[in-house]
Structures are given as structure tokens and as C-alpha cells.
Amino acid sequence: MRLNLFLQKTSNIVAENRLLKFVVVVIGVAAIANAIMTYRALNYQRTIIVPPVLKSRIEITGDRASEEYVKAFSRYIAALSFSYSPGTVKPQFDELLALYAPEAFPEGKRVLYELADRVITTRVTSVFFMGKLYVDGEKNQIEVSGQRRQYVDDRKVEDVTKTYLIDYRISDGRFQVVRISEKEETNSQAARLP
To answer: Would you say 67 and 135 are in contact if contact means Cβ atoms under 8 Å apart?
Structure first.
């Protein structure tokens, strides 16, 4: 780039430097504005999904999701964690562990594998019939209640109403389980899965 506005060569070089500095500043401001707009676009981006299983659309925005999305995952998690047999318990729990948050994974793995070992050893089959499903979006907690029946060698050994709490979070549009616990009806405190 050569400017020939002035008679002196040094004045032309100074003008070129000023022009180049101005261009660098404009490019820097444009890069910063682009970064800010990209960050805002990613945080306010909405993904609308209408899967064939659900009757209504679900939305995921940043770290929030619609209640339908959370309920769909609640049903899926309840099916994986509360209904099992000795032959299906390990694959189901492995699939469930894929949904756990990274920091909750070690504890979840320990609890679920201990339960799987007991199920296989005692040959217990558990069936859970979901009744009520309540989502508390502010506390990121799901309350699932229903009828649990357990069988040992085709003999019914338990038929009780149970309430489970599923603590979750939505991280970058992904549903993650933080903890699954059983709600005790007598003193309303949560205890670990049986």
C-alpha cells in the first residue's frame, strides 16, 4: 500500500502507518464483536425436537429444558433403574450409567453394581408401575411414585408403593443424572437405592 498524498516521503509513511493501525483496530473490534455475538447465539439457541414417541415438542435452551423433555427422560430412567431381572440388570445399569454426570458417576456405579450383584445372587425380579411423575424445575428434581413388585423365583415377595427422587441437571442440552434415591415416607428423608 503506497500513499502519495503528501510531497514528503515521511509524511506518506506516517499516513500509511495510521491507516494500517486504523484497519488493525477495526479488525480487532470486529473480532471481539463476533466472539460476543457467537457466545450469545450459543447460549440463546433453541433446539426444538418433535420425536415420534412424544405428543408435543420439546425445547432445550442452554441449561434449561422443557418439562416434556425431562418427563421423557424420567420415564426412561425409571424403566432402566426400577424394573429389572437377573438377566437384564447389568446391561440396563450400564445404559443408565451413561446418563450420569461425571462427578456422580463413581458413586452411581458403586451403588448400581452392588444392587446388580444382589439381584443376580438372590435372583430377584423387580417390576415398577409408574403412577405419578412430578418435575420440580427449580430444584432440578423429579419425584416418581408408583407400585413396585418384587419376585424371587416366580413368587411375589413384595408389593409396595415407592417414591423415588431423581436429581438431575441439563448441561449443554444434555440430560445428566446427579443422584437417584428412594424417598422414605415416614420421615421424608432420602435414602440411597436399595
So the answer is: yes
Q: In what order do the strands lie in the sheet with 58-61?
A: 46-49, 58-61, 64-65
> Using CA atoms, how far apart are residues 151 and 127, in angstroms rounded to an integer?
8
- CB-CB neighbours of 151 under 10 Å: 16
Task: Give residue 187's pLDDT band: very low, low, confident or very high (50, 70, 90).
Answer: very low
C-alpha cell at 179: 443422584
8 A C-beta contact, residue 77 and residue 177: yes
C-alpha cell at 67: 418439562
pTM over 0.85: no
Burial class from Cβ neighbours inside 10 Å (0-12, 13-18, 19+) for residue 84 reads buried
Complete DSSP assignment for 50-93: --TT-SS-EEEETTEE-HHHHHHHHHHHHHHHHSB-TTTHHHHH
Q: For residue 69, give the nearest of 79, 58, 78, 80 by alpha carbon.
A: 58
Q: How far apart are CA 168 and CA 50, in angstroms?
A: 22
CA-wise closest residue to 169 among 142, 143, 189, 144: 142
Q: What are phi and psi of 53, to 5 degrees?
A: -80, -30
pLDDT in tens, 76-96: 999 999 999 999 999 999 999
- What is the edge-to-edge ordering of all strands in the sheet holding 155-171? 124-136, 141-152, 155-171, 174-183, 190-192
